[in-house]
Amino acid sequence: MAQLINEIIAIGGTTAHRRPFDEHRILDEFIAAKRGICCFVAVDDAQILGFQALEWCDPDWPGEDRLPADWAVIGTYVAPGAHGRGIGRALFLETAKAAKAAGVRFIDATIRKENEGGRAFYAGIGFVDYRTGDESVSKRFAPG
Ligand SMILES: CC(C)(COP(=O)(O)OP(=O)(O)OC[C@H]1O[C@@H](n2cnc3c(N)ncnc32)[C@H](O)[C@@H]1OP(=O)(O)O)[C@@H](O)C(=O)NCCC(=O)NCCS
Question: Mind listing the pLDDT tens digit for each residue in 70-109?
Fold first, then answer.
């Protein structure tokens, strides 16, 4: 997972993450995240081709764009060589089920405006725009 997200960070422009990950940070931020709900991986034999993580929003977020407590935030990362094969969509089938089971009202996906692929992806799996900032667009999906 670290190798995959580091490849995406190195290409640039599609994730807010800037610092490369090691296995400890992958555990802290995705697999065993403090507010984590689920983290699914897509595998082909022993190779990880993508992962998607969902966590409750941060109730102590200081900005004006703080989300209600029953909202969750999503992140999706698919290996650059494996885009467009339905991996993100397949991951979201599982994430949406887990979100519903956890009682999430809305899933938020906040995407940088220049990340056209990311915006098209979330629109393609059913997210709708609800807020536009200077640098990002926020989309949401109701799993219930
Ligand atoms: C965005 C990302 C997760 C999409 O994953 P993916 O596995 O390639 O997406 P899928 O093949 O499951 O696509 C599902 C649907 O999304 C839409 N879509 C996905 N990528 C698209 C693109 N680049 N352009 C247009 N539509 C796109 C399509 O509607 C597609 O459905 P279709 O194949 O039936 O037409 C992947 O490109 C990625 O990891 N990008 C880098 C990180 C990132 O931007 N993450 C999102 C912000 S957290």
Answer: 999 999 999 999 999 999 999 999 999 999 999 999 999 9
- pLDDT beyond 90 at 62: no
Walk me through the domains of the chain, giving residue ranges and CATH numbers. 2-141 (3.40.630.30)
* CA gap 1, 4 in Å, rounded: 5
Q: Which of 121, 137, 138 to mutate to test the pocket of ligand 1 (most atoms within 8 A of CB)?
A: 121
* Pairing assessment for the beta strands 71-78 and 36-44 based on DSSP bridges: unpaired
Atom of ligand 1 nearest to the CA of 90: 12
DSSP string over 18-38: -SPP-HHHHIIIIIT-TTEEE
Query: How far apart are alpha carbons 23 and 2 in whole angstroms?
Result: 6
Contacts of 103 (CB under 8 A, 6+ apart): 70
